[in-house]
């Protein structure tokens, strides 16, 4: 996919729109980093936007799943049990220190 520095975004809009139509889209960059996608869309812009949002959510879920696979996951009951154990240990230590 083609890229376009943001400085050139306003400079040559006719050729930009031709490029988007021809290639299906372009990545707009800011200081060399991707900043936005300009996509050629059909008449149903709202449906295209909703599809894009769904895709972003799917990618986020994919990242979360990868994190969970790498680091493990604890269910709420397990977290509460860990907290209770830590509190019980701290309480017992305080009780021993008072004696």
Description:
By secondary structure, the protein is α+β, with helices and mostly antiparallel strands. 66% of the residues lie in helices and 17% in strands. The protein contains four helices and three strands. It has a three-stranded mixed beta sheet with strand order 1-2-3. A hairpin with a 2-residue loop joins strand 2 and strand 3. The protein is elongated. 2% of the residues are buried. The mean pLDDT is 83.
Record keyword descriptors for this entry.
17% strand, 4 helices, 66% helix, three-stranded mixed beta sheet, alpha+beta
Order of helices and strands: EHHEEHH
Question: Strand order across the biggest sheet?
Answer: 1-2-3
Percent of residues in beta strands:
15-25%
Structural class: alpha+beta
By DSSP (H or I, 4+ residues per run), the number of helices equals: 4
Mean pLDDT: 83
Number of strands: 3
Poorly predicted ranges: none
Helix content: 55-70%
Shape: elongated
Q: Give the CA-CA distance, first to last residue.
A: 72 Å
Summarize the main sheet. Answer: 3 strands, mixed
The gyration radius over C-alpha positions equals 26 Å
List the helices and strands and how they pair.
Elements: E1 2-5, H1 6-9, H2 13-23, E2 25-30, E3 33-39, H3 45-71, H4 76-98
Summarize the structure.
The protein is built from 4 helices and 3 strands. It is an alpha+beta fold and 99 residues long.
């Amino acid at each position: 996919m083609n890229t376009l520095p943001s400085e050139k975004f306003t400079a040559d809009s006719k050729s930009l729109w031709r490029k988007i139509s021809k290639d299906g889209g372009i990545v707009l960059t800011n200081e060399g980093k991707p900043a936005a996608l300009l996509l050629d869309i059909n008449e149903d812009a709202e449906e295209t936007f909703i599809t894009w949002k769904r895709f972003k959510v799917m990618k986020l879920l994919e990242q979360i799943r990868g994190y969970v696979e790498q680091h493990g996951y604890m269910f709420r009951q397990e977290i509460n049990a860990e907290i209770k154990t830590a509190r019980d240990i701290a309480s017992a230590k305080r009780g021993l220190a008072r004696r």
